[in-house]
Amino acid sequence: MGTKDIIGGGIFIALGLFIFILTFQFPSLEGGQPGPSLFPRILAVLFIFFAGIVLLRGWRTRVETLRSAPEEDFEVPRNYFSPVFVLILIAVYMALSNWLGFFLTSTLILFLMMIKLGVPYLRSVVISILLTLFVNFMFYKILRVPLPMGFLGW
Amino acid sequence: MDFVFQGLALLMAPKVLLIICLSSIYGLFVGAMPGLTATMAAALLIPFTFFMDPVPALVSIVTMSAMAIFAGDIPAALVRIPGTPSSAAYTQDSFELTKQGKAELVLGADVIFSAIGGLMGAVVLMSSAPLLAEVAMKFSSFEYFWLAALGLSATVMVSRGSQVKGALAMILGLFLSTIGVDITLGYPRFTFGSVELLNGVDFIPAMVGVFGVSEVLRNVLQGEMSYPISRVRAGKIFSGMGGLIRRYKVNVLRSGLLGTFIGVLPGAGADIAAWLAYAVSKRSSKEPEKYGAGSIEAIIDSGTANNSCLAGDWVPALVFGIPGDTITAIVIGVLFMKGLRPGPMIFERQPEIIYAVYLAFIFANLIMIPFGYLAIRTSAQMLRVPKNILMPAILIFCIVGSFAINNSVFDIGTMLVMGVVGYFMEANGYPVAPIVLGLVLGPILEQNFMTSMIKSDWDLTLFFTRPISAILGGLTLIVWFFPVLAAFLEKAKKRNLPPVQ
Q1: CB of A4 less than 8 A from some CB of B
Q2: Which ipTM value was assigned to this complex?
Q3: Which one of A40, A50, A51 has the shortest CB-CB distance to B178?
Q4: Of B51, B184, B403, Cβ closest to residue A29
Q5: Mean pLDDT across the stretch B273-296?
Q6: How far is C-alpha B345 from the chain's CA centre?
Q7: In this structure, is residue B497 part of a structural domain?
Q8: Domain boundaries, chain A
């Protein structure tokens, strides 16, 4: 956990500093009191304060573990690509849905994700189409949400 | 009395009854699936509630959450995995009893005492909320500022794991709430020229990301899971329940009240209620040695407490607009979307909505018994739904749900980013619930602070000179300095102890 906390704390400190610097562009109230900048500036200070604690604690744990035994990774090997693949699929939906339309895009990403998770081909195709029809029914027919049509008008 | 009938009429409309049935099934399913939480269920439900009237929207959340918290007990008993975090406290006991061949007894007690707990919570909600609302009528921006601060501080206090990390998660939520046009001068903050960000980070896609997408990411990383499921003869689950109720009536009363009280505290939810009731139960039990090895008393106590907590959570949400847990944080978001401002005024202007919520709690907990029975009967089939089909289904609902609110692809992007943030934070020991509370309470905190400051011409003393404000402020400060004080006392105690020989 030590190294992870050093990185996490570092990221939050950087975010705090970034927010703090940006607030200086904000205008003040008429009487000269801070307006839009006050609340974010307080938050930035709190960010740096609490992230500093996380970082220091992480540092201490790391030093201790280094002294006692070399840090070993006991984690079970996992399928790290799967989550990345899910993110790519969301991005694909964002990029293609307006052009391809909801029906094709949804079926495509559902199919790809099921294949990735080991569902047999034929079952993936059938379930992707059925799920897309169900989502279409729920959102388009019942809730009347205009889903993207695409160039085919689907 | 008129409002009771008005509320009842709203609740008994065929469309609302249909929504209640669907929300029940949805809640039971999500609750019973290990790895899917009641909060995720609520996050995925909001896009639907967006298109409903206020009453059906609120009623669907009430029913769904009550069913989900109960259903979390089912896999705890059958496969030793809690369906939601709220069942974690007594999972071990449930499974041990199942191994002893008493699965029917456990599941029967789960459904009956969940319903009793829920009804007790509803009674407390109905009796305390109107009284508190009268007190809240006297509140001004000073008091609301402290209430929001107290709610946030309590959330951090009770967050699981590190409180410092809980604080960071909350500050992140507060920061996200500052994005967009500011309330004092209308200045666009942190928008980086983006038109979409002028209105701020949209609550719904953010929720769907933090609780839905991150859940999908976590599940696909773990790979496929299958469970050895024991079969249950559901026909017998209610036998012997009368005896249990008579025998443990004091436990039920104690845990029901304890759970509701935990619910009323801002930020503490059903999981904490269950853990606390478990601890209290063990301490006062005649058979404490059975705890962990299969104690039905433990299951009765914690199972009553986590469901009674749900109604308690609604007290601060409806009366002050301060959420009692993550689900009610989502409820407050829904109320704002509907143009309703939670707070004492809602009790005066739209009492029928409040009565509909009361009645929904009673109704949901009554129909929990038949619905729960059916869920237990079908539990083996439910647990067999493969994750590699369920996860893609949840993903597409996340995507379309986020898109549906503003018909904007930008919102899917918000969902994506928040999903990644939520995933990484949780993986590194940061609780994510405080992000939501920060996001919901941020505007309330800032708005009331700035209003107070401008009203009083930057006189900070007014936060402590008004009586109620002073009490709330004092409480908040105690919560802030409690960890420091506790550490100090601990050190002092150690110093006074004689050295170990």
Answers
A1: yes
A2: 0.91
A3: A40
A4: B184
A5: 92
A6: 23
A7: no
A8: 2-68, 82-142
